[in-house]
Amino acid sequence: MTIRQAKSIFLLPLLLLFFSSCGEEPFYEEYISVNDAGWIADSIASFELDIDDTVSAYRVVLSFRANNDYPHSNLYLFREILSEDGLEYRDTANLILADPYGKWLGDGMGELKTFARLYRRDPLRFNKKGTYRFTLEQAMRMDTLKGIKDIGISIYKEANGKEEN
User: Fold this and answer.
1) C-alpha to C-alpha distance for 21 and 141, rounded to whole angstroms
2) What average pLDDT score do residues 83-100 get?
3) From the CB of residue 164, how many other CB atoms can be counted at a distance below 10 Å?
4) Where are the chain's structural domains?
5) Count of Cβ atoms closer than 10 Å to residue 131 Cβ
6) Selecting from 2.70.98, 1.10.287, 3.40.1130, 2.60.40, what CATH number does the domain 3-163 have?
7) CA-CA distance, 165 to 162, in Å (whole number)?
8) Could you read off the pLDDT of 47-73 as tens digits, one per residue?
9) Most exposed: 28, 60, 85, 96, by fewest CB within 10 Å?
10) What's the alpha-carbon Rg for the chain, to the nearest Å?
11) Average pLDDT value for the chain
């Protein structure tokens, strides 16, 4: 893979996210602050929301704020979606936070950067009305992950495959 191809792989999703997010209000949004010591390995960030509309699709964006104390160019996460009936979805994700040269791919000036990444390329659909919980757990094989300051989730509702404004 050439350097140009690598840059395209990293920048294209960011540009798509930026242009698709301008000005729209999320259906749900929440941030959790991380302890000053860092993100402890067994500490789970949990976000709970009620879904009444099972026809629409939902675009989910994960957000992280990190400072220069963050020692890696990526972030591995264990992710789950739970409903009132139990586990609906589980995976491990590798989020790329810096290019191959170490330049942060987040937004912001100074030491604090914000990284926004789509949960999945395709929007989510919920089969049943009810309460859903999204959980995120750091999977970096470190007891304490320094530099992560906030963890957030934004959910945008799309109607019939198109975004609602």
Assistant:
1) 32
2) 96
3) 12
4) 3-163
5) 11
6) 2.60.40
7) 10
8) 999 999 999 999 999 999 999 999 999
9) 85
10) 16
11) 87
